[in-house]
Amino acid sequence: MNGSNGSNGSNAPAAPAEIPARQGALLPLLVADQEVVDFFVGVADLDATNPADQHLEDGVRLASGARLEQFARAGSGDAFCFVGEGGEERPVVYVSLDGEAGPLALGLAELVRLCLVAPWWRDAPGRTAGELRAVADEFREDMPDLDRRRDRAARALGLDPAGLPSEAAVLARLGELSRGPVAATCLVLGCEGDPLDPLFP
Q1: For residue 59, which of 54, 78, 191, 193 is within the disulfide window of CB 3.0 to 4.6 Å?
Q2: Element (H or E) spanning 139, and its range?
């Protein structure tokens, strides 16, 4: 694993080279382009189409005191949030109504690739490589047109499907972000002031 120890002068790991930041470019497409909406809402369970739905539970906040800005939700009501100030390059944290939270990506571009490659990522925690393969196979059995829908959504976002990272790479990235300085910066407190459980223990 390459990990997060690159000597780039920063305490936080940089986004992998194959995941360039595209500031200000993606969020409007997650709302406006129908191919993209169909994939992200219907397959990846990430819905940014209704800003009125983007309200975190009262008291949920970052331990650092930095801004926690919800920009999308899952069907369950779980929240996708930006951390701090800025644009789409900000870290993305997932806050579950089950009392779990943790970083998913350094920037919306990286989250988009995670959702395109492994829309079943929520089933990843604690599973072996073989079990994850079974999860992916079952997901494809339930959705035989998954690859076609993914490719159409990727192209609508200006991405080459052949250039997407592998499932193994995006899952390894989730594990990497769950440890070290990024996880510490993105620590979420619940309504009672206690830290929420990590998404990836």
Answers
A1: 191
A2: helix 129-142
On whether the CB atoms of residues 94 and 174 are closer than 8 A, the answer is no
CA distances from 72 to 1, 3, 67, 105, 149 (A): 30, 28, 15, 14, 20
Alpha-carbon span 59 to 166, nearest angstrom: 37
Helix 146-156 to helix 34-42 angle (10° resolution) is 130
Residue 156: exposure state from Cβ atoms within 10 A (0-12, 13-18, ≥19): middle
Stretch 21-45: mean pLDDT: 85
Dihedrals φ, ψ of 176, to 5°? -65, -45
Name the residue with tokens 């035989």: 144
pTM: 0.85
C-alpha distances in Å from residue 108, one per residue of 37, 98, 126, 181: 15, 23, 25, 19
Q: 140-151 burial, b for 16+ CB within 10 Å, e for fewer?
A: eeebeebeebbb
The pLDDT assigned to 148 comes to 96
Q: Which two tokens stand for residue 27?
A: 């969020």
* CB-CB neighbours of 8 under 10 Å: 10
Collapsing DSSP to helix, strand or coil, 13 comes out as coil
